[in-house]
Write a sequence for this structure.
């Protein structure tokens, strides 16, 4: 195998790369060219627009000043107090008033032909005559048609700013010819021109026809008064925009020159090309940079594509080699191998697969569906079978293949048994490995299956033994309770109490074994309710106080300051852990005390960490045993087991319960000085309580129900338990009828009216679950609901669920605890009332 790509491939690749790079370069050039043209058009339009604005505004201003000068003839009429007599003081007052009214002038003066002052708007105005050019008055008086003249700016005597003098020849009432001169601040004209220019990039000038500069934007006092004759291009422009130089600094610019209403006055606006094209140059540089980047990127992409194509060619070569290696490896396998795609079509197989299934040799090809192969295999495996049997076999084989979740053992009928393992791939396909198993391997597989079945049988055996032990134990403890309720001598009572203690100890061992079985099967569940954690601890302390007192120990409870709100959790499992820890502390302490500490700490929003520690002054735990103290069937040593007894399951169960509740448990100890067991449980705060009225109604209903005597049907096959439950119900004030199996319970419920049924589960002829379903079937179409409470030695969680699923209202485990029985009867009765 060689790595080779056609030269034409490289030529096409680089032709495309170079074509794209050239297209980018041409596009960039076109963008810069059109950008420059667009920018020049925009600047020309702006220059022309600003020139129009400046021309119009300055024309209005100059015309306003000219009208003011022309109107002085009428203004000065009051200065002629008598015919032929001109009152200079009155004229000065009139000029001062004019000066106050007109913002375009700062001073005004009337001059004779010899430049003598006839009247002035202020004392400072008289200096105007000295600042006028010689002969200006005679020149203006000689005009056939009087016109306003603008005189070169001078520094104002009233301020540091420059001013323009504007003069006009006037004829007074007495026929006298005079010259009226007003002073206009250059700053006024600059403001007008700046408003017209508007943009800092524009240059505007106000000049005389001779080229003498009167004012400019931006202002330049150094150039004011300078004479710079207009060129031919400027004179021929007729107000159009042309390429020239600006009138201030002579920089290349787009210029427009406009003559104003006063022919000897011109206004020019220029946009220096450096400033006008600065943005375009930046855009051009950016376009060039971006285009260059794209061209470079295109070349890099071309190089990368070249490199990637080479890698792809190498990858294809490596893939071909890998496939060749895989084929060799599959051929060398002792097991059959096949790979199916996500669409259940064959992708790859080895020679051994065809050897195990020779009937597939002719028909197997890439892309063949599994259903077709299953039909072919059915003919080979069932040569004597009917068509229907073969279809059923093929359908079952396809179903197992699609599940791909189990190991299949298939007898091919020719003395070969194939052990097949089929599993799903992440892409949804199926990979299958098929091995010709020997008789020894089959025995090993059967032994494993038997071990797994034995483990399952162990759980079933524990449940059965629990039932079988609890049934007589229920009679023993029940009869013992009845016995303790009679008149006994002190010796008889002591014997009876010892029997009760031993019975409860046996029941505790049975419960521990069942808990271990639940934990192994992953079936231990928590019953989450609202409860008072501190009260739960107090209850356990109260129950164990008598045991501690009997050994002469002090049992103390230390609760942290403050109030712990109600929490959500399993109080019964919490009590079980406390019974184990405190009970162990009392058991292994001969003298001294046992201290229980309770604390809590908010850990998150509406969540608390409950801390409980049990400390004792007992025998302690050796260091080598402490790390495995929570393992099952573990005690410090065999002598401890002989001396103190116990199954060694309590701490293991406690750890499992604490971890199931999301907490942790730890132990610390010093031999001969005592031990400390501590656990922490994260618990949520309780849900809001129901309305007070609803609680009051429930309490009232419970009180009424507890006070009523009920007629109860008991279904129990054990004779001793029949006697026991009847005696218990008689003491509770109820009436009872006893039947021996579920069928009799169904018949009795038809023939008599009962308030409640206590139903055993395991009974001859008809079990309790079937009897309950039959009773519920009889209730269909009738407005009635007979409460049924399970009373069974089956104490597993799934047993309780099965009872409730069958239609029972509540559940009581044997041995019967009388308070629990009373509570279950009341709950079932209330539910029945609510059901109706």
């Amino acid at each position: 195998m060689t790595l080779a790509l056609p030269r034409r491939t490289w030529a096409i690749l680089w032709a495309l790369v170079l074509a794209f790079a050239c297209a980018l370069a041409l596009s960039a050039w076109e963008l810069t060219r059109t950008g420059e043209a667009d920018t020049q058009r925009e600047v020309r339009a702006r220059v022309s627009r600003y020139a129009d604005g400046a021309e119009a505004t300055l024309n209005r201003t100059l015309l306003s000043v000219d009208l003011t000068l022309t109107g002085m003839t009428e203004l000065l009429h009051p200065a002629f107090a008598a015919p032929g007599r001109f009152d200079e003081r009155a004229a000065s007052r009139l000029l001062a008033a004019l000066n106050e009214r007109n913002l375009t002038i700062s001073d005004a003066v009337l001059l004779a032909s010899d430049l003598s002052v006839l009247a002035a708007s202020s004392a400072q105005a008289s200096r105007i005559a000295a600042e006028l050019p010689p002969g200006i008055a005679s020149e203006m008086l000689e005009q056939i048609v009087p016109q306003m003249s603008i005189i070169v700016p001078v520094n104002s005597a009233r301020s540091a700013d420059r001013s323009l003098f504007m003069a006009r020849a006037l004829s007074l009432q007495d026929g006298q010819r005079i010259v009226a001169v007003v002073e206009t601040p250059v700053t006024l004209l600059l403001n007008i021109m700046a408003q017209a220019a508007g943009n800092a990039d524009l240059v505007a000038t106000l000049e005389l026809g001779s080229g003498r500069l009167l004012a400019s934007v931006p202002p330049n006092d150094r150039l004011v008064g300078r004479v710079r004759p207009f060129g031919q291009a400027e004179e021929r422009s007729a107000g159009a925009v042309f390429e020239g130089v600006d009138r201030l600094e002579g920089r290349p610019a787009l210029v427009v020159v406009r003559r104003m209403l006063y022919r000897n006055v011109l206004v020019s606006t220029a946009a220096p090309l450096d400033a006008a094209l600065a943005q375009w140059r930046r855009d051009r540089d950016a376009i060039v940079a971006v285009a260059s980047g794209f061209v470079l990127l295109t070349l890099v992409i071309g190089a990368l594509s070249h490199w990637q194509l080479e890698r792809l060619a190498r990858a294809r070569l490596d893939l071909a080699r890998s496939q060749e290696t895989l084929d060799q490896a599959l051929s060398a396998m002792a097991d059959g191998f096949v790979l199916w795609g996500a669409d259940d079509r064959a992708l790859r197989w080895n020679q051994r697969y065809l050897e195990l299934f020779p009937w597939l040799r002719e028909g197997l090809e890439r892309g063949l569906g599994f259903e077709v192969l299953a039909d072919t295999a059915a003919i080979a495996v069932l040569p004597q079978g009917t068509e229907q049997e073969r279809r059923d076999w093929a359908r079952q084989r396809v179903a197992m293949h699609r599940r791909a979740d189990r190991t299949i053992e298939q007898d091919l009928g020719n003395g070969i048994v194939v052990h097949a393992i089929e599993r799903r791939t992440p892409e949804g396909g199926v990979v299958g490995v098929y091995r010709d198993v020997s008789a020894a391997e089959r025995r090993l597989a059967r032994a494993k299956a038997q071990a797994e079945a034995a483990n399952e049988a162990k759980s079933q055996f524990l449940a059965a033994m629990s039932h079988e032990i609890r049934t007589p134990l229920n009679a023993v403890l029940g009869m013992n309770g009845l016995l303790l309720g009679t008149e006994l001598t002190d010796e008889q009572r002591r014997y009876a109490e010892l029997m009760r203690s031993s019975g409860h100890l046996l029941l505790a061992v049975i419960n521990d074994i069942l808990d271990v079985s639940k934990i192994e099967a992953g079936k231990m569940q928590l019953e989450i309710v609202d409860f008072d954690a501190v009260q739960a601890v107090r209850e356990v302390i109260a129950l164990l106080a008598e045991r501690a007192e009997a050994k002469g120990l002090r049992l103390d409870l230390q609760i942290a300051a403050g109030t712990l709100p109600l929490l959500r959790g399993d109080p019964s499992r919490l009590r079980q852990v406390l019974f184990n820890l405190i009970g162990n502390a009392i058991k292994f302490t001969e003298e001294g005390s046992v201290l229980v500490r309770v604390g809590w700490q908010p850990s998150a929003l509406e969540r608390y960490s409950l801390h409980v520690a049990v400390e004792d002054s007992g025998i302690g735990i050796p260091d080598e045993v402490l790390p495995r103290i929570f393992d099952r069937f573990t005690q410090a040593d065999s002598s401890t087991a002989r001396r103190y007894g116990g199954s060694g399951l309590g701490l293991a169960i406690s750890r499992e319960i604490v971890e199931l509740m999301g907490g942790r448990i730890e132990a610390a100890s010093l031999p001969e000085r005592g031990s400390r067991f501590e656990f922490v449980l994260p618990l949520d705060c309780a849900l809001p309580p129901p309305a007070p009225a609803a609680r009051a109604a429930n309490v009232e209903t419970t009180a009424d129900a507890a006070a009523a005597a009920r007629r109860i049907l008991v279904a129990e096959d054990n004779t001793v338990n029949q006697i026991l439950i009847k005696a218990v119900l008689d003491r509770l004030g109820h009436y009872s009828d006893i039947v021996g199996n579920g069928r009799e319970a169904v018949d009795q419920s038809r023939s008599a009216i009962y308030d409640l049924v206590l139903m055993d589960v395991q009974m001859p002829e008809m079990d309790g679950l079937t009897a309950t379903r039959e009773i519920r079937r009889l209730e269909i179409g009738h407005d009635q609901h007979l409460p049924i409470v399970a009373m069974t030695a089956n104490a597993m969680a799934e047993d309780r669920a099965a009872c409730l699923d069958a239609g029972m209202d509540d559940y009581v485990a044997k041995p019967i605890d009388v308070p629990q029985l009373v509570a279950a009867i009341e709950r079932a009765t209330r539910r029945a009332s609510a059901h109706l």
Q: What stands out?
A: Confidence is low (pLDDT under 50) at residues 636-645, 692-707. The first strand starts at residue 107 and ends at 111.
